[in-house]
């Protein structure tokens, strides 16, 4: 049996709806989203339910994390369908504020950045941060706002946005925020494509081409027993086989997004455009460098020229 979640549109409504849970000592789990929900988001809701008594989902397309040239206006808004998915996964409260609720007085990039925002540090200057300057300022600022409003005991984020997850963990640690951050496994379609709200932008040919990201990462995993360079070469070979995909970056790093290991656990990450749609994906990777093999000695990050 599903229970329709209660919808809050203002900060005051959200506070009132969670008052009883706080008074009774119930654990609150939180899943921040930008809507256009799919099974990947549903898995985050189920993960939250395993850590908490009350699950809150936010639905807010955050303008601060989009550059003026990016797809803010195009980003899908599907609130009725989103509420149905939340109901099917026993979400208690959905917080769906207007832009003016999160950014009093309205939003524009210049005025917001003149105010108090979260500076994400040097980790935000690589990978997606290099491709999308200012993106993570917007992400961390709105996540800090949402954590302050919901005040959850635990918040769930997907590992598909691996750099985002790392930065949110760093923010929570460095700003001493009283919340546990849990990273949930990436949910995939049957053909391996990582679930994403942006997948709906792909036409059939682009949708088929997009599976090359998953295949490239798996090729790197298979060759990682021979070292960093062979793993990277394997992934690049697969990516270059698909003409509809325009590579942004391919990076093999440590689990902390620092230097790639010569031996041990790391992460391989990719970002690419398929048509006009930008997709990201990543996987864990275990690197073994055979004795006597020259090693890379640094993070591997190849970008399109």
What does this structure look like?
Helix 7 crosses helix 8 and helix 10 (212-223) runs antiparallel to helix 11 (228-240). The chain has helices at 11-23, 39-49, 79-88, 99-102, 109-114, 128-131, 135-150, 162-174, 204-210, 212-223, 228-240, and strands at residues 6-8, 28-33, 54-59, 93-95, 154-158, 180-184, 245-254, 264-274, 277-287, 300-303. The longest helix has 16 residues, at 135-150. Strand 3, helix 3 and strand 4 form a beta-alpha-beta unit. The protein is globular. The chain contains 11 helices and 10 strands. The protein is of the alpha/beta class. 36% of the residues lie in helices and 21% in strands. It has a 6-stranded parallel β-sheet with strand order 1-4-3-2-5-6, with helices on both faces. A 4-stranded antiparallel β-sheet has the order 9-8-7-10. It has 2 domains: 7-184, HUPs (Rossmann fold); 202-286, 2-Layer Sandwich (Pantoate--beta-alanine Ligase, Chain: A,domain 2). The mean pLDDT is 94.
Poorly predicted runs of 5 or more residues: none
Largest sheet: 6 strands, parallel
Number of helices: 11
Q: Could you give the distance between the termini? A: 53 Å
How many domains would you count in the coordinates?
Answer: 2
CATH fold-level name of the largest domain: Rossmann fold
Alpha-beta content class: alpha/beta
Radius of gyration (CA) equals 20 Å
- How helix-rich are the residues, as a percent range? 25-40%
CATH architecture of the largest domain: 3-Layer(aba) Sandwich
The spatial strand order of the largest sheet comes to 1-4-3-2-5-6
Order of helices and strands: EHEHEHEHHHHEHEHHHEEEE
* Tally of DSSP β-strands: 10
| Level-1 CATH class name of the largest domain | Alpha Beta
């Amino acid at each position: 049996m599903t229970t329709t979640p209660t919808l809050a549109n203002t900060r005051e409504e959200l506070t009132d709806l969670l008052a009883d849970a706080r008074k009774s000592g119930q654990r609150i789990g939180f899943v921040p989203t930008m809507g256009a929900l799919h099974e990947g988001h549903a898995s985050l809701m189920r993960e939250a339910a395993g850590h908490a008594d009350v699950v809150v989902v936010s639905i807010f397309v955050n303008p601060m994390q989009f550059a003026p040239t990016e797809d803010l206006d195009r980003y899908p808004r599907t609130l009725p369908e989103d509420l149905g998915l939340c109901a099917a996964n026993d979400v208690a409260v959905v917080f769906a504020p207007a832009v003016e609720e999160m950014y009093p007085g309205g939003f524009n990039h210049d005025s917001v950045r003149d105010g108090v925002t979260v500076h994400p540090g040097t980790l935000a200057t690589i990978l997606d941060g290099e491709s999308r300057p200012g993106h993570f300022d917007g992400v961390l600022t709105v996540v800090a706002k949402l954590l302050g409003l919901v005040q959850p005991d635990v918040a769930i984020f997907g590992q598909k946005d691996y750099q985002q997850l790392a930065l949110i963990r760093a923010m929570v640690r460095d700003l001493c925020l009283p919340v546990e951050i849990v990273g949930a496994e990436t949910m995939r379609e049957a053909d391996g494509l990582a679930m994403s709200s942006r997948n709906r932008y792909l036409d059939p040919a682009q949708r088929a081409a997009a599976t090359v990201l998953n295949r490239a990462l798996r090729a790197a995993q298979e060759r990682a027993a021979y070292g960093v360079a062979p793993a990277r070469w394997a992934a690049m070979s697969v990516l270059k086989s698909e003409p509809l995909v325009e590579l942004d970056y391919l990076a093999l790093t440590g689990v902390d997004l620092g230097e790639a290991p010569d031996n041990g656990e790391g992460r391989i990450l990719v970002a690419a455009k398929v048509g006009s749609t930008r997709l990201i994906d990543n996987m864990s990777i275990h690197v073994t460098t055979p004795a006597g093999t020259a090693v890379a000695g640094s993070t591997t990050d190849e970008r399109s020229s």
